[in-house]
Amino acid sequence: MKAVRREPVDTTPLWIMRQAGRYLPEYQQIRKGKTFLEFCKNPDLAAEATLSAREVLGVDAAILFADLPTILEPLGFGLDYQPGPVIDNPFRIGSTIDDVRELEDVGEMGYVFDTVRKVRKGLPDDIPLIGFAGSPFTLASYAIEGSGSKHYIHVKTLMYSAPELWHEFSSRLARAITKYLIAQLNAGCQCVQLFDSWAGCLGPNDYREFVLPHLKSVIEQVSPHGPVINFLTGNPALLPLCAEAGGEVIGLDWRVDLADGWKMVGHDRAVQGNLEPVVLFAELPTIEARAKAVLDAAAGRPGHIFNLGHGVMPGMNPDHVKALVEIVHEHGSKTNAASDFA
Amino acid sequence: MKAVRREPVDTTPLWIMRQAGRYLPEYQQIRKGKTFLEFCKNPDLAAEATLSAREVLGVDAAILFADLPTILEPLGFGLDYQPGPVIDNPFRIGSTIDDVRELEDVGEMGYVFDTVRKVRKGLPDDIPLIGFAGSPFTLASYAIEGSGSKHYIHVKTLMYSAPELWHEFSSRLARAITKYLIAQLNAGCQCVQLFDSWAGCLGPNDYREFVLPHLKSVIEQVSPHGPVINFLTGNPALLPLCAEAGGEVIGLDWRVDLADGWKMVGHDRAVQGNLEPVVLFAELPTIEARAKAVLDAAAGRPGHIFNLGHGVMPGMNPDHVKALVEIVHEHGSKTNAASDFA
Question: Its Gene Ontology molecular function terms (chains A, B) (predicted)?
């Protein structure tokens, strides 16, 4: 939390996107015999997955175990995992805004807030719990494409051919996300991350017109309740606009040098990232060299939260992830006040 | 060709990546009853597809009908289309450089050069024919992943865990690509494009170490035989390094504003691009507005070749593609000499 505020720290803090996941035997054990949705909606199990990953890895924050598209259910979308998320009734050209419910009662996501409370109880006081949600664009993409997409043809066609409907739909999503994140903070999260996992498929003009206003609206309303990490992946050319949308911390993916990315978003902002995730499939000396290169790029500037540039992947060796945590703690920077960098 | 050399032109020239493809009824007709590989290897049919697309659309250049991974066959890789390209014997950790043949005789790709000669005969003298090949990185990715990939885990793991083998393999690919492109130019192409369709999955440090030397080696050797368009997609942060690798023209994808991208690669270089391809699924007024925005970003500077930011897609309306050609010809810039922009 000090790094979020760009205050001096003893060493660079880190957590790892998707740190509680399939690559961990502890997770596989907890999840056994449950479908993914059953698991997400069971606060006891989701809390256990959250806590055990934090403990096993020794990272400096817990991240809520949940998934991005579940917030679409109370908006009227049918969600299934096959095993990736699939929407039964995608929102397409020809749909109207009345096909989507307004999220009046965020209590419909109560299982998530129950998980937050359970995790918070089991977590040491000095370890923050990070909540999260998909950004309006990324959730719109799930709802419109209906499943994984390579070219985002349905999403972009709706944007270009029905821009008013796009904005109505994105506003509705933005209002739901805002309520959802504030409720996570109220339930006990110290910080929340917005995942714009798919906005990298856009050029800057499209991002400015179709993404930025809705993302900005969410962040403006959530920030007074707790700090926001605004994470974008897939296109470094969008970083200045992503920073314009707001967030106490900007999450960087691995496609940009951390030093360059930090410059692009401005040194008056904390950043998170950005080790190439596939490096964790390599041997330990490579992991060490690459992690140090990320730390070097941060140059001891206050406000760096170490993370991968995207999530940890199934099949990765948990020992490599643990080794990364030790490397960052050992070689991380004891940073001074921001004023030393003025 | 004047635009390639940044000389004054009467209006912005254009061609369209994958202009001869499945979206065209003329292509479907020519291709009927043939597998994709049979079609590629039949110079009469491949030439007809090349020529008919050029004529139907009225674009300013023909692009050879061929596919990127076919050059892998004479290197010893088994190639099949299911319907995307699949390699029977992918190159992986544990493979040795002896598992890959050195391309001694480029005549093994003779069907491509026969196609070039046939197209050149059927093409008006003032219409250039563009040849092409995959860049060393993109071909290595095909050979290593063996099929489409989301995270390039095998590619990156081989890079990180066996860097010497990576460089040996990439050098071998670079030598084959060099011979292949020079032979295309010798057979009658006026220009060639290198497609780095997948390098956008890398960060700048990886690109500098693992991609740039091999790409540079190809371009240095091919350029004296004819101009090279160096096209990269997926990561605008790589553009300065892509320009460093060389090429008379740098191809820009849609993830960056053309004006910004041109600045990044330097105004002493021609650029190609970069309309968001999915715009062609929208209605004509949108296509017109967006095409004009790209032309505006070029600002009449000499050395702009209009293109999409990536290839045209199956299912697109051929009338929209034809309309784009007319829009660009009508609204394109009569450019002056480069010295006016000094």
Answer: uroporphyrinogen decarboxylase activity
The nearest CA of chain B is from the CA of A84 a distance in Å of 14
Q: Which residue of A has its CA nearest to B280?
A: A157
Active site residues of A: 18, 22, 31, 67, 142
Q: pLDDT tens digits, residue range B92-112?
A: 999 999 999 999 999 999 999
pLDDT of residue A279: 98
Name the amino acid, one letter, at B167.
Answer: H
ipTM of the complex: 0.95
- Name the residue among A153, A160, A255 with its Cβ closest to that of B237: A255
Task: Decide if A259 touches B, using CB distance below 8 A.
Answer: no
Peptide bond into B274 cis (omega under 30): yes
**Each residue of A112-168: pLDDT tens digit?**
999 999 999 999 999 999 999 999 999 999 999 999 888 999 999 999 999 999 999
**Residue type, position A275, single letter:** L
Q: What angle do CA B209, B214, B219 make, to 5 degrees?
A: 130
Residue A10, in any domain of the structure: no
pTM of the predicted model, to two decimals? 0.96
Record the tokens describing residue B56, joined without a space: 């139907």
- Residue A334 has a pLDDT of 77
- Residue of B203, B257, B313 with shortest CB distance to A204: B257
Residue A16 counted as domain residue:
no
Contact state of B256 with A276 under an 8 Å Cβ cutoff: no
Residues from chain B that touch A293, judged by Cβ atoms under 8 A, are 205
Measured CA to CA, the distance from residue A333 to residue A330 in angstroms comes to 9
B278-313 confidence digits (pLDDT tens) = 999 999 999 999 999 999 999 999 999 999 999 999
CATH of the domain at A95: 3.20.20.210
A37 within domain boundaries: yes
Among A156, A236, A313, the residue with its CB nearest the CB of B237 is A236
